[in-house]
Amino acid sequence: MDHPATHDLFGNEIDGWYWQLSEEAFEEEVEAFQGVGNWRAAAIAERLVATTDDVPAQLMAEYQGLWNDVGLLHEANFDSDFSPLIATYNAMMAEIGRGAFLPADAIAFIVEFICRRTGTRAS
């Protein structure tokens, strides 16, 4: 599902493709959790899919910006340069799988991801 183009707090247009990328990633997690019979985690991942469109443009821009910055700076070593981001994402999904992280929605997941990657805490 394409998210309509929207704007961040500075009036910059945020590409609707960002929401689609996030939604597709969460859908893959639904399938993975279902594949191992972890129905509780699959339900949480389904909630992430269902609430991706609710993520504000500013937050989505920050989230995707983390991925974009690495890709622009290090195109030659895609896998190794993305590994810290992928490791953070995978760790968060593993925590969902174990019941140690229970994000209420996609906003909560993305805020936590940003906090982990930037070393900050949401208040």
Throw out a few tags for this protein.
single chain; mainly alpha; two-stranded antiparallel sheet; 5 helices
- Approximate shape: globular
Q: Main sheet: which strands, in order across? A: 1-2
Number of DSSP E strands? 2
- The SSE order reads EEHHHHH
Strand percentage lies at under 5%
Count the helices. How many? 5
Please outline the major beta sheet.
2 strands, antiparallel
The class by helix and strand makeup works out as mainly alpha
Notes on the structure:
With 123 residues, this protein is mainly α. It has one domain (14-118). 67% of the residues lie in helices and 3% in strands. The protein is built from five helices and two strands; from the N terminus they run E-E-H-H-H-H-H. It has a two-stranded antiparallel ribbon. The longest helix is centred in the last third of the chain and has 21 residues, at 78-98. The N and C termini lie far apart (31 Å). Mean pLDDT is 86; it is low at 72-78.
Entry summary:
The chain has helices at 17-35, 39-51, 57-73, 78-98, 106-118, and strands at residues 6-7, 13-14. It is mostly helical. A hairpin with a 5-residue loop joins strand 1 and strand 2 (13-14).
Secondary structure: elements and pairs:
Elements: E1 6-7, E2 13-14, H1 17-35, H2 39-51, H3 57-73, H4 78-98, H5 106-118
Antiparallel strand pairs: 1-2
Helix pairs in contact: 1-2, 3-4, 3-5, 4-5
